[in-house]
Design a protein that fits this description.
The protein is an alpha/beta fold and about 200 residues long. The protein has a single domain, classed as Beta Polymerase, domain 2 (2-Layer Sandwich). Helix content is about 20%, strand content about 30%. The chain is built from three helices and nine strands; from the N terminus they run αββαββββαβββ. A hairpin with a 2-residue loop joins strand 1 and strand 2. The longest helix is centred in the first third of the chain and has 14 residues.
């Protein structure tokens, strides 16, 4: 671990203490995990405290751990992962927090800390169904308004739940149950000796 990351790690441990559930430095990156109840407070302090100086939030995403490790995962299912950047100190930090309720995952919104979190939180809501409490405009951003479900959840069917098409009789787009038959695609890995040879068709 570099001296810079060692300093960051020590500052984090000294300042947050037991609020940090885990701290790891892997591949030159520091990652901390905090409880959902501490998430907003920790993020605010990471921005405001001069010892950290994370003035930029560069990424926020949702994660579904339901089949992580081939189904061996035992913890909470949904997490929010945030990547922060300090220009003043020239260091980065990854923060992870797990939602407490798998049935209705929710997390405090950090749009009041970094306005750039707005569309990222909308994306995590749209794709994973994670609700961000305190977000001023939490609505879908990538899927259609009538879309059912959250397509990045591991249990979401590949073909989806509904399909849409234009109905010329009604002169509008309509939604209907998916008509695609589920099938298993097996890649063709054994090929003939002449595969791809234009002389043999």
């Amino acid at each position: 671990m570099s001296a810079k990351l060692e300093t960051l790690s020590q500052n984090l441990q000294e300042h947050f203490g037991e609020r940090i559930k885990s701290l790891k430095c892997v591949l030159g990156e520091v990652t901390i995990e905090v409880a959902a109840a501490d998430y907003l407070g920790v993020m605010t302090e990471l921005r405001d405290q001069s010892a950290f100086g994370f003035e930029e939030m560069i990424d926020l995403c949702g994660v579904d751990y339901s089949v992580y490790g081939d189904g061996a995962w035992q913890g909470a299912r949904y997490a929010v992962v945030v990547h922060l950047l300090s220009v003043a100190h020239n260091w980065r930090l990854r923060v992870r927090a797990f939602a407490e309720d798998d049935g209705f995952p929710s997390m405090a919104s950090i749009t009041g800390v970094w306005a750039s979190a707005n569309w990222f939180e909308r994306e995590a809501f749209d794709l994973y169904g994670i609700a961000f409490v305190g977000h001023d405009d939490l609505r879908r951003i990538l899927t259609d308004y009538g879309f059912i479900g959250h397509p990045f959840r591991k249990d979401f069917p590949i073909s989806g739940h509904v399909e849409m098409r234009y109905d010329p009789d009604q002169a509008r787009v309509i939604y209907q149950p998916v008509t695609i038959e589920p099938r298993e695609n097996t890649p063709r890995i054994v090929r003939e000796d002449t595969y791809g040879d234009p002389a043999h068709g």
